[in-house]
Amino acid sequence: DRYAAITLPMHVIHGTQSDILTDDIVTRMQANGPRPCVTSMGDCGHAPTLSRVQDIAAIRRVLSELTYAE
Fold first, then answer.
1. CA-CA distance, 18 to 47, in Å (whole number)?
2. How many CA within 13 A on the CB side of residue 68?
3. Whole-angstrom Cα Rg for the chain
4. Which of 1, 40, 52, 61 is most exposed by smallest CB count within 10 Å?
5. Cβ atoms within 10 A of the Cβ of 10, count?
């Protein structure tokens, strides 16, 4: 399984209303492979539009917490 072979850190931005990346898929992703951290965006479909202040703040927080490994 290619997903299970991923060794890099991952972070998933999850729109809770997505019909593509469902809650069940996110739960399975967290239990296997790189076990990503998840930021869920309420009242949001698959791709956040970043038109709401709280969504922009959440993305900025995620980006500020990323670490770079050489």
1. 8
2. 3
3. 13
4. 1
5. 15
